[in-house]
Amino acid sequence: MRVEFQKTGEKRYAVSIWQDGKAVLKMDPAPGFDLLMPHDMLHFLVEQKLGLRRGIFGQIALGGTASSFSQTTSNNSNKRASARLRRKSAKRDKNLQKHSDDYDQSERATMICLYDWLSNSKNVTLKNRGKEMKINAESTFARMPSKEKDALNERKLAEIRSEMDELSQKWSSLKINESISLEWSA
């Protein structure tokens, strides 16, 4: 599955997803624009690194839409077929979300990883941004099940920080209408 993050404006981005034999999924505009790294790109990275197979992108890989993406249809498709496809997707999304805590874990881990990345930055502005998140991050971490805490060990956090540095550099250098494509592997 190929996921494209496109900078569509000064403070806007879109996410498009291509899978073999399936309609393209799109979210435009996508929430959580950030000059350093959009929220959904961070979700992608965290879910991939922690092996969350039923987070946002795992649900999509399993045929869902994570209740966030819309299926793009060609001009030739009829309204009935499109409506049927939407109903089928909604049912699949409901089933996928019922059987997984990965989605919530992804939200918690994404917040912790962002806090960790900012707090470990050499840039004073980013470090201060991390300080603003400290109370919420510590509270979130304290409420996490021990299995989740164990997954976010120092080695894993360092690995994610390194990838965040790389992706942030690429994202920050994009001009409007340029994009980054990433491959999801299950």
Q: What is the residue-averaged pLDDT?
A: 88
Strand element count: 5
Order of helices and strands: EEEHHEHHHHHE
Our Rg estimate from Cα atoms comes to 17 Å
How many individual helices? 7
The N- to C-terminal Cα distance equals 9 Å
SS-based class: alpha+beta
User: Uncertain spans, ≥5 residues at pLDDT below 50?
Assistant: none
Helix content: 40-55%
Widest β-sheet, arrangement of strands: 4-3-2-1-5
Shape descriptor: globular
Key terms for this structure?
186 residues; alpha+beta; five-stranded antiparallel β-sheet; 5 strands; 54% helix; 13% strand; globular
What do these coordinates show?
This protein has 186 residues and is of the alpha+beta class. Helices cover 54% and strands 13% of the residues. The chain contains seven helices and five strands; from the N terminus they run βββααβαααααβ. It has a five-stranded antiparallel beta sheet with strand order 4-3-2-1-5, with no helix packed on it. A hairpin with a 2-residue loop joins strand 1 and strand 2 (12-18). The radius of gyration is 17 Å and the shape is globular. The protein starts with a strand and ends with a strand. The mean pLDDT is 88.
Structure described in brief:
The chain is α+β, with helices and mostly antiparallel strands and 186 residues long. It has helices at 39-50, 56-61, 79-98, 102-119, 124-143, 146-151, 154-172; strands spanning 2-9, 12-18, 25-27, 70-71, 179-183. The chain contains seven helices and five strands, in the order βββααβαααααβ.
